[in-house]
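Page 37, continued from 36.
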């Protein structure tokens, strides 16, 4: 009996919401999951994804992935996971400041600087604990006329140079950036 009463109340509430939304043009169902999906799947999303190669002198080569949330045109928050050599996995969080500049009205170059923290996992002795990350770089946006040919063409080509506090030398990263 209670299940029937609950079902009747739920249907009545749904009809009331539907009737009121028909009069005010408010969506019938507002779901956080649906909102998140719509946000991530629209071209105006602030989420970006990067895949890149890592080149160092003493630690070996590697690769990494990152997700950037663009707070504004000049500020972003980044989460990354890097793998260097055969033994170091490095999750990190960074804050990035950038200044997009359009050259000759056609090519947009985005110089940036960032700082953050990371913690090496599975690293060799002397590379453990929380470390600082400092870096500079630049991205070049791929023109819309080229990106229009396929949705798999990245938003930009990215290069950065960074220094980790407990590692000798620096690292170079070259990769691609896709916008959700």
């Amino acid at each position: 009996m209670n299940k029937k009463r609950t079902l009747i109340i739920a249907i009545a509430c749904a009809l009331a919401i539907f009737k009121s939304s028909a009069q005010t043009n408010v969506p019938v169902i507002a779901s956080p999951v649906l909102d998140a999906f719509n946000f991530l799947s629209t071209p105006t999303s602030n989420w970006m994804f990067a895949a890149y190669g890592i080149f160092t002198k003493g630690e070996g080569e590697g690769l990494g992935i990152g997700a950037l949330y663009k707070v504004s045109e000049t500020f972003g928050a980044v989460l990354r996971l890097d793998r260097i050599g055969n033994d170091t996995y490095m999750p990190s969080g960074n804050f990035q400041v950038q200044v997009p500049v359009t050259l000759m009205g056609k090519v947009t170059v985005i110089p940036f600087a960032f700082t953050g923290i990371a913690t090496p996992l599975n690293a060799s002795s002397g590379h453990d604990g929380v470390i600082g990350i400092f870096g500079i770089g630049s991205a070049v946006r791929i023109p819309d006329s080229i990106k229009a040919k396929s949705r798999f063409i990245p938003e930009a080509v990215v290069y950065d140079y960074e220094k980790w506090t407990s590692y000798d030398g620096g690292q170079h990263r070259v990769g691609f950036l896709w916008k959700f």
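The helical segments are 2-24, 32-41, 144-147. Flag for discussion at group meeting. DSSP finds three helices and nine strands in the chain.
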